[in-house]
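Lecture notes, unit on binding sites. The following record was shown on slide 14. It pairs a sequence with FE2/S2 (inorganic) cluster.
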Amino acid sequence: MSVRRLAEDTVQPASFAFSKENAAWAKETINKYPKGREQSAVIPLLMRAQDQDGWVTKAAIESIADMLGMPYIRALEVATFYTQFQLKPVGTRAHIQVCGTTPCMLRGAEDLIKVCKSKIAHDPFTLNESGTLSWEEVECQGACVNAPMVMIFKDTFEDLTPEQLEQIIDRFEAGKGAEVTPGPQIDRIYSAPEGGPTTLMLVDAAPAKTTATPKKASAEPAVSVPPSNAGRAKTAATETNASLKTPATAKAEAAANAKIEGDTVDKSKPAKTAAVSGKPSLEDKNRPAGIEKPAAVDDLKLISGVGPKIEGTLNELGIYTYAQVASWKKAEREWVDGYLNFKGRIERDDWVKQAKALAKGGEAEYIKVFGKKPR
Ligand code: FES
């Protein structure tokens, strides 16, 4: 911890007084404590003094000690112990507190300090030329999960890059700090994973059960895919008797058979549901091709990220095998990701690599590739 001393006498004001409003607040705050324990209000009162004047002056410490009936040294001990109290004048528009503790340091805090040095002043606690900005390095601010971060007044700004910090400093210097949204500066809510939750999610992605009338046995085998995929499935069944279709083939077929699909598919319910819920349409060209349920289906749950419910949903989409998942191209993965509301999880868990290993050699190949058993 740095040595914390009061500012030089040359910058100390001669006296301190709470404003009328703050004085009333201080009285009310002191009254919250039992008789004889009023000194417990020292921290909130010092904080209020700082909020009022921008920093904690010697006069403020002594005045508050008088209000609480405590020796000056006791109030001074509190003010010099807690780093939240600024003992020297700081920037009037922003005092940037850069966390330099290990997690933030490992994630780029040193680069943030470089920004402060170049944009504000080389040394901490030094005002810039206009007196509007200052900075310091502080210990952990409790937002390590979103490291690196800075605190400005009572707000934290997290997941920062040097460029973002530069922009934030510019906004504060322009007097527009209130317009900067505090918290994570990336696609993250509070401390949730980047891109959205990845666990304990309610995945309400199951498409409506097919209500399509089974095809006549003489014409084609029954196809257990949702109705909106019926056109594609029909083509697959007709041409390959439900053998595995590659996405490219499926797409080509989808284009070539657009009219067939348009004519034969009941577009009403499932597609409408998908559109309303923000999910990609079941008729989207990027939807991976489904197949008829094979005699032996793969255990998709061996793919990390696929549980029983997701497996059921995939099956309803006509996805039964590792080979199918392994063949998904980027657009198809994005479609499935959107349909499952996974927010990038398929890429993060690398379903394709997992599925390729499982398709090639089952669990043994998976262990060879990933060094651990699936699931
Ligand atoms: S280490 Fe920086 S907030 Fe905890």
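Take-home: The chain has three domains: 9-81, 94-184, 227-370.
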